[in-house]
Design a protein that fits this description.
This protein is an alpha/beta fold and 347 residues long. The protein has one domain (3-343): 3-Layer(aba) Sandwich (Protocatechuate 4,5-dioxygenase, Chain B). The chain is built from 11 helices and 14 strands. The strands form 4 sheets. An 8-stranded mixed beta sheet has the order 8-5-9-4-10-1-14-11, with helices on both faces. Strands 2-3 form a two-stranded antiparallel ribbon. The chain has a two-stranded antiparallel sheet with strand order 6-7. α5 (155-167) crosses α7 and α7 (223-238) crosses α11.
């Protein structure tokens, strides 16, 4: 039977692939963004900056601080890439969200498993990258390859996952070919491309992309539902009649677009302590916009797939990446596996 040998999660935000000297490009988007949630409530930029003035967040957005945090993030990403190369799994299940790059308002599935023979990661033109918003073109290299890339799927495993999910009363959608999407190119979105480029270093192994709608009402699954979805995925992989080794990789950040470190630490402590009740019971109203990637994205699903007893875990340092006044992405990694010497994940 197939064996899960590695679990890995990472943020995929643009600041991870942007020089710190250029982080300010996103400030205009910050100031005009309507989805600034804090403590479950919606704020305008100026109102939120005033509310949090006593925290003196401006002390965290000096160029020296940004360079320090950027360098630490690059070391962490390199460590994940080294771990992936060393464990060398045969295939992967990559779980991520789509941010209206592939699925639009004509059809927005809550859960979808792609089980086609192949799919593509298609580079964006400068014009297309620029259409995503200021400060995103400079980061596009972190998920968009220099040339069109055809990636092998794992249709046998993907179909088994769909069958098991249906048996478990998940009304999961399926796809053999990704739709044209926003750019008309049928490409996999950036949440997946980040892992192919930054973790697999363009040597992409066959994989099954799994989508969960994190961002867009009204059909976002709850944390409880996402956790249980991950458990069924893990059971399906373990039931695959194959001698392949499998990596489970989850692409999604912690709280953003406004970072709330206490919530991040609450989630991370629950992961570290294998606290299923805590993870399944997290309050949905705290997870809006980008923060929904905690509730419905990498961390909840990864915990569900790699349930209690499935090997040691190591959480890497929490690095909130701020760029002016308000906060942006947190970066945290969780490596899970059995292939660690002395029973701990590598530093």
């Amino acid at each position: 039977m197939a064996k899960i040998v590695l679990g890995m999660g990472s943020s995929h935000g643009p600041m991870l692939s942007t020089p710190p000297e250029e982080w300010g490009q996103r400030v205009h988007a910050d100031k005009t963004k309507l989805e600034l949630y804090y403590r479950g409530k919606l704020y305008q930029f100026d109102d939120l900056a005033q509310k949090r003035a006593s925290e003196h967040l401006e002390e965290q957005v000096t160029l020296d601080k940004m360079r320090e945090h950027h360098a630490a993030c690059q070391r962490a990403i390199a460590s994940l890439a080294e771990t992936f190369a060393r464990v060398s799994p045969d295939v992967a299940v990559v779980i991520g969200d789509d941010q209206e790059e592939v699925f639009l308002e004509d059809n927005m599935p809550a859960f979808l498993v792609h089980w086609g023979d192949t799919f593509e990661n298609v580079p964006l033109s400068e014009e297309e990258a620029g259409r995503r918003g200021p400060g995103l073109a400079v980061a596009a290299w972190g998920h968009s390859p220099p040339e069109r890339q055809t990636i092998q799927g794992v249709p046998e495993l993907g179909r088994l996952m769909i069958d098991r999910l249906i048996e478990a009363d998940f009304d999961v959608s399926h796809s053999r070919q990704l739709p044209p999407g926003l750019y008309g190119n049928h490409s996999i979105p950036h949440a997946f491309g980040f892992f192919y480029r930054r973790i697999m270093n363009d040597e992409v192994i066959p994989n099954v992309p799994v989508f969960i709608n994190t961002f867009y009402p009204p059909n976002q699954p709850s944390m409880r539902r996402s956790y249980d979805f991950g458990k069924v995925l893990g059971e399906a992989i373990a039931a695959w009649d194959s001698d392949k080794t499998v990596a489970v990789m989850a692409s999604g950040g912690l709280t953003h677009f406004v970072i709330e470190e206490d919530i991040d630490r609450e989630v991370l402590d629950a992961l570290k302590n294998r606290d299923e009740a805590k993870l399944r019971g997290l309050r949905s109203e705290l997870f809006n916009a980008g923060s929904s990637e905690i509730q419905l994205g990498g961390h909840g699903r990864r915990a569900g797939t790699h349930g209690p007893g499935n090997g040691p875990r190591r959480l890497r340092p929490l690095l909130p990446l701020r760029r002016r006044h308000r906060q942006r992405h947190g970066l945290r990694h969780l490596d899970v596996g059995r292939d660690w010497r002395r029973g701990v994940a590598p530093g």
